[in-house]
Automatic annotation (TrEMBL):
Key words, A-Z: Glycoprotein, Membrane, Signal, Transmembrane, Transmembrane helix
Example of a GO biological process term: establishment of protein localization to organelle
UniProt keyword annotation of Signal present: yes
Location within or outside the cell: Cell membrane; Membrane
Name of the molecule in the record: Lysosome-associated membrane glycoprotein 2-like transmembrane domain-containing protein
Signal sequence coordinates: none
Family designation: Belongs to the LAMP family.
Primary residence: membrane
Residue stretches making up the Lysosome-associated membrane glycoprotein 2-like transmembrane domain: 60-90
Length: 94
């Protein structure tokens, strides 16, 4: 919401139809669009997000995955240690 999408570089879209073997490409340049416009009286776009800019750095998903993997290992070790201790006591835990 309140964001437009802008791509200043040339973008080529392949429009080839496999059935009729017609080959065509569509080249778009200076493209800006806004899907959900809330201001109908204004003729300008909202703040633009560039087409080549990444939304999320690659380090964030890697860090989250490592943290979740570490948590799984800690829980597994605690579970196995608890089973080993209860097996060492035998049937005295009634």
């Amino acid at each position: 919401m309140n964001t437009s999408y802008r791509c200043a570089a040339d973008t080529q879209l392949n429009l080839t139809a496999e059935v009729t073997s017609v080959a065509a490409t569509l080249t778009l340049s200076q493209l800006q669009e806004e899907a959900f416009r809330t201001q109908h009286n204004n003729n300008s776009f909202s703040s633009a997000r560039e087409c080549g800019s990444p939304d999320l750095p690659d380090a964030v998903p890697i860090a989250v995955g490592c943290a979740l993997g570490g948590l799984v290992v800690v829980v597994l070790i605690a579970y196995l240690e608890g089973r080993r201790r209860s097996a060492a006591r035998g049937y005295l835990s009634m």
